[in-house]
Write a structure and sequence with these properties.
It contains 4 helices and no strands. By secondary structure, it is mainly alpha-helical.
Length: about 130
């Protein structure tokens, strides 16, 4: 995600920030931060819950609808990048959970029965 929008620069010619654009930057940064944090936790062998990422992505979608079409087109590409990152993270999480299930001899822990949780796991997913 090297094409991250720069929130430190004015977003209009006169230096007055355009409010939907500012909200888009904030929503993007929130979602990207949550995805990055989840990716690091998964790499450390910790199970993660991806549901907190959804509201930030939904906020970005709503904000994109308020932007002029040229700005919206730019933000749609950033949204697609986030969705691609989230899909890859979800796939990696599923692989880790499958590995844990196989390593446990097919026994599912209580945490797996109730859904995603944050817990320390073996190195199988690292």
């Amino acid at each position: 995600m090297s094409d991250k929008p720069d929130s430190s620069q004015p977003l209009t010619p006169h230096g007055v920030e355009h409010e939907p654009e500012v909200r888009a930057v904030a929503a993007y940064e929130s979602a990207a931060t949550l995805i990055g944090r989840a990716r690091r936790r998964l790499a450390d062998g910790t199970d993660v819950d991806l549901s907190p990422i959804r509201p930030a992505i939904q906020d970005l979608c709503r904000t994109i609808k308020e932007l002029p079409s040229k700005q919206a087109a730019v933000w749609v590409t950033h949204l697609l990048d986030l969705q691609h990152d989230l899909a890859a993270l979800g796939h990696d999480l599923a692989v880790c959970r499958q590995q844990r299930l196989e390593n446990s001899g097919g026994k599912v822990s209580e945490a797996d029965d109730t859904g995603p949780s944050i817990q320390q796991e073996s190195s199988a997913c690292r």
